[in-house]
Amino acid sequence: MYLNKYQQQILEGKYGRGPQKAMEILRAMGEARGAEKMVEISYAHLMLPDVMFFPYGRQGKWGQELIRDLIQDIDHLSVPATIEPKFVDLNIAKQLEFSEDEIKEMNQIMESAVRFYEKLGVIPTYSALPFFVYPGKLNQHVSIAESISILWYNTIFGSCCERDDGVISLSAAITGFVPEVGMHLSQNRYAQVIVRIKDELEVNNFADSDFDALSLAISRRTKEKIPVISNLPLSVGQSYTKLKHLLATIAVESGLPLLHMVGITPEAPTLETALGPNHHKVEEVLIGEQEIREAYNIACTAKENHIDYVLLGCPHVTMKEFMEIIKIIDEKKVHPNVKFVISTTKLFRDTASDMGYLDILKKAGAIITDSMCIAFAGTKVKGTIATNSIKGAFFYSGFDQGKVSPVWFGSTKECTHAAIEGRWIGGGKYGCS
Amino acid sequence: MDVLKGKSVSKKHPIVEGKALVIKDLIAFWAGIDWESGDIVEVAHSGRGQNVTGKILVFPAGKGGAGETFGYYYLYRNNKAPLALLCNTVQATTVAGAIICNTPMIYGFKKDILKVIKTGDRIRVNSQKGEIEIFKENLIYRKE
Questions:
Q1: For residue B103, what is the domain's CATH number?
Q2: Strand pairing partners for B62?
């Protein structure tokens, strides 16, 4: 693999041990995947184990050890960088069933890590939706370590990023380079399978969770192939919230970096353009009511109607979702047996506060938090969980009916009703009740 | 004995030899495998209940989120990692896991390894040459 003079000097240790180790990892990745050279990036989104990945107990120490080499001799990053959510908001950790000892340990590991990264100049987004802070551009090369964001930058902006993980994205931010493979090369970005939505589905009337179900149905059928959805209503592309629900599930279910939507994604003005050289040899997958109902049935593992937790915000609750919740809450109260956690970003929290939403929600008895990962931290709770996210449902129950935390999956509206009533009512067109 | 050539993630590893565990579905190392036990725990997964520790893990490719590498790393730190990884297609997070944990990994063979290798076959993984040697389980049995 070719390295230019500057990259070679990093590798030889001229800029210290951390950059050297980062270049070693990037070169190993490049050689493993047959890259000819590195490509310069202009932005990175970081996923740090000591901030996000269960930073307590044995794995907390392992996380610290994993990046110890990489951060030696580092006092700045080569590109602007945002950061994934913290594992948990320590102010609400007790309500999510963490012990005093765990909280103390997390405080130590997580907070010292956070101080270190912020000193490096990391933009403190603590968000899985960094594109609200740092939107990408067409053909811009970036390194992103967050599955929905990888899809978002490639799909919605037409930026180029591989499925980088925490170690690769940190190495990329330190050096400013990634190997030129996969999504960084235009010939790898064409769709490989067509998805067509049957007329019987009224996508324009979909509840937000219906997009999760659609996403699961698609990813179970297209697997590792890049899909192009040929007939989504263009209005889907105009709603951040719909796109969030659509992209979040397929991102983890299929492990895909890119999804084309005809008329919505920049690289898919037409079906033919999205398919490029693959146009003559692709299969077509059909998705209808049956497939959507099946997806709901996979995600709903609960049998009994009572609810202990309503966990919203995987990824973070958007303004549209806040509005839906507020409309239903009105002046009602959260059921005394339910913990209703609304997890958002700092950005949306401030806006929601300005709009008076937070006062209404606090008065109702909801727990509002930001900058944390409700998918991970929520795995600690025992009891029946309601969620509007299939990605969340997967982390809580693994789609396993035998788990201690059974899940009801439905729309933001259904989840809010569940928080008020203390039981699952359902009522969604395709959903579980 | 069959010999198959693929692309080696790193040539520096010594030759390792072990028993194959063939899994037909994509594997998630975060949440799909329990790093405490090394068991595949994903529901409705064809490999559910199988243990990957110390095996030559043969699978189509990795899947899951960007946290995959940490899942593999925790498995490795807990001494429950596979001995080597053999895949049909390459997935970046799986490669990163192999690099960080020094696990031999070969991918991109000319034949579909899920069809050529059976669970229980003895596999010799030569990272330097990017080659695997397959000793069919039943032949060894007859010899013994």
A1: 3.50.30.10
A2: B27
